[in-house]
Automatic annotation (TrEMBL):
Residues 1-23 form the signal peptide. Keywords: Signal. It comes from the Bacteria. This is Alpha/beta hydrolase. InterPro entries: AB_hydrolase_fold (IPR029058). It comes from Natronocella acetinitrilica. Residues 32-44 have a biased composition (Gly residues). Residues 32-56 are annotated as: Disordered.
Length: 493
């Protein structure tokens, strides 16, 4: 049975299971039982299924908020123009790029780009390791997605649909090729979430375009899925509390003005020196360190960095007024800060000080709606879950100084995968750099090459332990896989 047949069979089994489950439910109240009977001939009460709640994102899609930038689709060759076929266009209205080398090795790499915020223009990115892929015979394909914002569902479905139409597009462009013998995904940032979801069991059973990948590489990925919203909210609530403007409700009223107030209270001069803090500001630094992954190399340098540190703190502060719906991707609040342990004097696991206890008792706690990200009848959840139920090898790379998509995302994911019993399919690597996605070309190539070798030779490569706090705090943590290639790389002791 080939891969596509396997996927169809898996979806068929899922459908049959659902039918049998429904049959069992209907049968339990049918005429064969000892029900109460009555003049209605055994018919139960009529139940009306409520309509799903409306989302702001639905309006964006239906009212044409987004625009595909057609003139952006063409892309230049690398080296000899005749060495690859380069195709671009639209698939069901979604833009794409595909490149196939003349010496194609039969493998297709699907690239998932990162978050574009509220941009209206839909664009395609090339994978950063495109030269390596072409030189080594890999074809690649990348989708613009049907929508921006944090629409992981569209990103995954559109990427898979492109991969499934790969040979058809090639034939339409005059190149007859066989179906790919291997599929890999590389995703960056939000695309890292997409890459993680691509390997999940729930995705295979629920996606409209299911595809069984042979492995995935997640770069600086949002591997804690919606829990990143907990992180954004917890940080801003802590800053407000320390800055003298504590929140008393969620969503927070006047979030932008509160940010300006706490910046003045917690920084000596936020605009002049992002690393210079007041005494209360030092507490915020410690809280952020623990929220973002604990004590580790590069954190303090990342926080104080005049370029990436300022950029990422500004991004965090931009979420002060978020409403827990990922700006309309969900219909209800999913943020949950009830179990957040705020620490600024002790390490997690130790007995909290009186001051920490007082802080934790006073700060606003946010509770989520009962089912903010429900399973959908028409495909994947609005924010696909990363439960840790892997069906193929996964390698992740994450910079230790990332404050936008923090290293704690890797810790959340590692624990989920471990709890599900799939730790043998996960390798995680820490990179000693500040800033979001600050990887060298060599670090990405090494990780992808190791992923392919793992799949082909069935020998698991080395990685870093992300769950042991003492290991993560070691001065040489991340030295195993950081390849010095830029000014932001941190030398090992």
């Amino acid at each position: 049975m080939n891969k596509q047949s396997f996927v169809k069979f898996a979806v068929f089994l899922a459908s049959i299971s659902s039918i049998l489950l429904l049959a069992g439910c209907f049968g339990s109240s049918g005429s064969g039982g000892s029900g109460s009977g009555g003049s209605n001939g055994g018919e139960g009460p009529t139940v009306t299924t409520p309509a799903p709640p409306a989302r702001e994102h639905d309006t964006r899609i239906t009212e044409g908020y987004y625009r595909l930038v057609l003139e952006d689709l063409p892309f230049d060759p690398i080296g000899d123009p005749a060495s690859t076929d380069r195709w671009w266009g639209e698939l069901d209205g979604v833009g794409y790029r595909i490149e196939v080398p003349d010496h194609w090795n039969g493998a297709l790499v699907v690239y998932a780009h990162g978050y574009r915020g509220d941009e209206r223009e839909l664009r395609v990115d090339n994978p950063e390791i495109r030269p390596y892929l072409i030189e080594n015979g890999y074809a690649w394909a990348a989708s613009a997605y049907a929508a921006n914002h944090y629409d992981v569902r569209s990103g995954l479905e559109n990427s898979n649909a492109l991969a499934l139409n790969f040979t058809k597009i090639a034939a339409e462009r005059g190149r007859e090729i066989e179906e790919p013998v291997r599929h890999y995904m590389i995703g960056q940032s939000m695309g890292g979430h997409i890459a993680g979801a691509a390997l999940e069991a729930e995705t295979l059973s629920k996606a409209n375009n299911p595809l069984l990948y042979d492995g995935a590489l997640s770069l600086c990925g949002v591997m804690g899925d919606a829990e990143i919203l907990d992180y954004f909210t917890a940080y801003n609530l802590a800053a407000m509390q320390l800055g003298g403007v504590p929140a008393d409700s969620f969503p927070v009223a006047d979030g932008e003005s509160r940010v300006e107030t706490f910046k003045e209270a917690l920084w000596v001069d936020y605009d002049a020196d992002i690393g210079a803090l007041t005494a209360e500001g030092e507490k915020l630094r410690a809280i952020l360190m623990n929220l973002s992954g604990g004590e580790r190399p590069t954190f303090n340098e990342a926080f104080s960095d005049p370029i990436s540190g300022r950029r990422e703190l500004d991004i965090l502060h931009g979420y002060a007024d978020n409403d827990g719906t990922a700006y309309g991707i969900l219909a209800q609040n999913i943020v949950d800060t009830r179990s957040v342990d705020y620490r600024f004097e002790t390490a997690p696991g130790a007995t909290r000080t009186t001051a920490e206890n007082q802080f934790n008792n006073l700060i606003l706690r946010v509770s989520p709606s009962s089912d903010a990200n429900p399973a959908q009848d028409d495909g994947l959840r609005w924010i696909p879950r990363l439960r840790g139920e892997l069906n193929a090898p996964m390698i992740t790379l994450h910079t230790l100084g990332d404050l936008w998509v923090p290293f704690s995302m890797q810790q959340i994911y590692a624990q989920r995968v471990k709890d599900q019993g799939y730790a043998d399919l996960l390798v995680q690597r820490a990179i000693r750099a500040v800033g979001h996605c600050d990887f060298t070309y060599e670090e990405q190539v090494t990780a992808f090459s190791d992923l392919v070798d793992w799949h082909m030779e069935n020998v698991k490569p080395d990685g870093d332990d992300v769950l042991d706090a003492a290991t993560v705090a070691s001065p040489d943590y991340g030295c195993g896989f950081t390849i010095d290639g830029g000014d932001e790389a941190f030398p090992c002791p």
